[in-house]
Design goal:
The protein is mainly α. The chain has one domain. Helices cover about 75% and strands about 0% of the residues. It has 17 helices and no strands. The longest helix has about 35 residues. The protein is globular, with a radius of gyration of 21 Å. The protein starts with a helix and ends with a helix. The relative contact order is 0.13.
């Protein structure tokens, strides 16, 4: 898809900068410019498309839709809505309160909270740019599965008493859902493209910069030995280290791309990214305001275990994806 861009960047590095792309420096520079341009193009297209869809699902409508589903159907619907509904760690508390107030089952609520940060339009766009459609689609499906199964397990444990009592007592007024024209939705999508790129460009450049250094200078044999798919503990270590960290998925994907090119297992790199995104420390701190420690521990344990399984799954099928 981006063969033309690869050629133009290589031409720029070799002819304008007079640096061979076969050298470590040239390889790093090529990686940086190629990935930056490629990711921004795909980011703009994907954010616009999914933001247009997202305009049909504001939080108020999402809540109303989920009120109509129960059981595993509710978990599946919550995970699917999590893909196209805006979510970040700062919105976890109001969304959680809104769902609890609407009497949406706890397990269904957590299906949404797990899936939404893992699978979003920006991360999906960069996954396509970095790894192609196959890996991006499998990542999308596994992200949904993690959300569904995680929510089902949490729901089965009957931990409603682990939610702070005041949450059940909150009563908010009914919010009217704004009716938008196609022009309004297109403008909303365009504004979202500008806003997201404005917020994440620094994460992108830092991530791509680190990825470029890894691509040009990291010792491939050493990384393959200790973090390759043949190391049975690599995925577990990646998730354990990722859980307490806060990292933007948009910045970690280029790093994952560079690590994978050096022999690190696909599942190892992606499971680290999932852990830092779905189980970030800021989100846990915010959720502590509405749920008790026991439920947070259950949430982290179940989601972390599911992500580990996803990591091993990706490593097992890597030869079909690359």
């Amino acid at each position: 898809m981006f063969g033309w861009l690869d050629y133009l960047v290589a031409l720029f590095v070799e002819k304008i900068l007079s640096i061979s792309t076969e050298t470590r420096l040239g390889s790093s520079i090529h990686f940086f410019f190629y990935d930056t341009i490629k990711i921004i193009i795909l980011l703009g297209v994907m954010i616009f498309a999914i933001s247009y869809i997202r305009s049909y699902f504001p939080p108020e409508r999402t809540k109303k839709i989920l009120e109509r589903f129960s059981g595993i159907k509710g978990n599946i619907m919550a995970s699917l809505l999590g893909i196209v509904t805006p979510f970040c760690s700062c919105s976890s508390v109001p969304i959680f309160i809104g769902f609890v107030e609407a009497r949406i089952p706890l397990g269904v609520t957590f299906s949404f909270l797990i899936t939404s940060p893992i699978v979003n339009e920006a991360a999906f766009a960069i996954l396509i740019a970095s790894f192609g459609w196959k890996i991006a689609l499998v990542y999308l499906v596994t992200g949904i599965v993690v959300g569904v199964l995680g929510g089902i397990f949490i729901g089965s444990m009957k931990l409603e008493n682990e939610v702070e009592e005041y949450v059940y007592q909150i009563k908010s007024g009914e919010i009217e859902i704004e009716q938008l024209t196609h022009k309004d939705r297109a403008q909303f999508a365009l504004d979202n493209v500008k806003e997201i790129i404005r917020r994440v460009w620094i994460f992108l450049l830092i991530g791509i910069g680190i990825g470029a250094l890894i691509h040009g200078w990291a010792p491939a044999p050493l990384l393959a030995k200790y973090a390759g798919p043949d190391n049975p503990f690599a995925v577990i270590i990646a998730v354990v280290f990722g859980i307490p960290l806060y990292s933007n998925a948009l910045g970690t994907i280029p790093i994952a791309e560079a690590l994978i090119s050096k022999g690190v297992g696909i599942g190892t790199a992606l499971s680290f990214m999932m852990a830092t995104t779905a189980l970030s420390l800021p989100e846990m701190i915010l959720l502590k305001k509405v749920i008790k420690t026991k439920l947070i521990v259950v949430f982290v344990s179940i989601t972390g275990f599911a992500i580990i399984l996803v990591g091993y799954f990706f490593n097992a099928i890597a030869h079909w994806l690359i």
